[in-house]
Structure formats: structure tokens, C-alpha cells
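Quick start: what a row looks like.
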Amino acid sequence: MNSLPHPSALLVTAFNGLVVAYDRASGGTAWTFSVPGKSVPGVRPRPTHVEVHDGRVFVFAAGSEGVLKKRVFVDVHALDHESGRPLWTQRVAAAHAPDFTSAVVLVDAGQVIVSYHEVLVAFAADTGEPQWTRSSEHGDGGVYSLQLQMGVHGGRGRPLT
């Protein structure tokens, strides 16, 4: 007998820095979350992506700070799936990233892994505690870097562009 997982009561969407959870039965808004900070200048829409796993919503959003020496980064936010309450936030910043090009995210087996320019970072999904950080052997590929592909048995990374 084939057993399908129980469908989630919420549909979670993300666009341009805003995450919204909708009740799937009624269509009503269950909760919203606005990504803090400023968007990447000249980039519309603001890159924002969600993954839903094990009672958490993981939000990945590109951002920037500074004017003369602009620094571009990816923030990772973990939210409670039912309430939208923030649980933890971590930042992934590349050493040389004047412009946001893309990132790839993978949520699997209690880890949140982000590939961004020349950096690979793993966080504990439940606490946000950094588990490891390393340089990618693929390098950053320059301004027009292609997305590094990531995969594990039964899953693959998703691009944040």
C-alpha cells in the first residue's frame, strides 16, 4: 500500500523580500515575514527563496550593505512553519562579491548548506549553529559565475537567482 505524506495546511510563497503563508483550505493569510535589510541596488525583484522542512521555513534572501565598498551577501532565516516566528538568522558573505549573481541552497538531513561565490557553508537546521565553512574548490568563476550544482541521495540544491 502506498502511503502519501499528509499535505501541509499552509502554502508558503516568497517574492521580493516578502514571505507569506496562506491557509490552503480558506486562502486566507496565516502569517507574513518581511526580510530585514535593503535589497541589492538595481536588482528587481529582490532574490528570495523558501524551502519548507520539518516544521521550519528556511528563507534565503540576497542583500547588500555599503555604498563605496558594496558588500553583497545571502541571509538565511529559519521561521516556525505554523506561526512565521523567526527562530534564527545567519549570513553568508563572500570575500569578493561586488554584485549578487546567484547562490544555491540545499536543506537535507538536519543541515542547511549554502554555496555562494567561492564559499560553502553548512548550518544546523534546528539551531542555525555554523557547522563548517570552507572555500569551494570550484572558485568563484568571476562576475558571471555559473551556479554550482549540489545534490544528495534523494535531493538536490535549489538556485537562488
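That is the whole record. The first strand starts at residue 10 and ends at 15. The radius of gyration is 16 Å.
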